[in-house]
Amino acid sequence: MSAAATISSRGNTAGTGATIIGLLWPFFMIVAFFGVPFALLLRVSLARLDPAYYQGSGWTLDAFGTLFQSMVLNGFVSSLQLAFTVATLGIIIAFPATYFITRMSRKAQVVWLVGLLVTLALSEVLITFSWQIILSKRVGISNVAVFLGLLEKPVSLTPSFLGVVGCLVYVVVPFNVMTLYPGLSRLDASYMEAAATMGARPSRAFFDILVPLMRKPVATAYLTTVVMTIGAYVAPLVLGGPANWTIGVIISEVAISAQNLPSAAAIAVLLMVITGLMILIINRIGGKGYAS
Predict the structure, then answer these.
(1) The dihedral formed by the CA atoms of 256, 257, 261 and 264, expressed in degrees to the nearest 10
(2) Is residue 43 part of a domain?
(3) pLDDT digits over 173-200, tens only?
């Protein structure tokens, strides 16, 4: 075999090895950061409650029997209600806002996007406690309502479901805008121009042409919001009452207050299963649409 052929063979072998390593690296990352934690979570959920061991001991399905308790069921209902409410309002706000941003000058777009990126840098804890002040009795928006004559006296707007929704919508709207922006910014303006030429009103062209074209990015943004909010913890705990507690708060209460880690793990496993099913359903509804 000639020297050139030998070098070429070694080069091909090295390239194949690099390709295999490149393919195995994501696999190992998924196993390390998802597979192993999920396996540990599943193991704890199958353990027997044991006062001597916080994580439980032995093997049993008793923890999954607690999933039918009213507290857990109410937590799942509250979580789903909150997640879909926040996701729907977030899309209603973010979609037209993103559309108008993409129709601005390039400089104005940069200013808006930088401003939204700055809000993403804020901690959810900081945002939640800021909303607690905004909704408070002394210096909150109820004082503005009194000044405008809408209320007779200042009132505290927490705990309330609307307070939790408002805070989480504020958190997710920048994520939605960033998800929708690439697709809307590259969308050919001739679609809307053609609709206007054929006599379609702007509102009809928006809903009949633009929204269907952006179905997949909208589904992605909606799905991201649902996943982010279904297990929300800080906002429901600070701004809501026990009736507004999500399943994330319930898991914390069961694990810390009730000292029942197997039951908390079983609830978390069910939450992951429900979240996975919602991901499949929303992706199915999203279809192909316009690739962003």
Answers:
(1) -100
(2) no
(3) 999 999 888 888 887 666 666 776 776 6
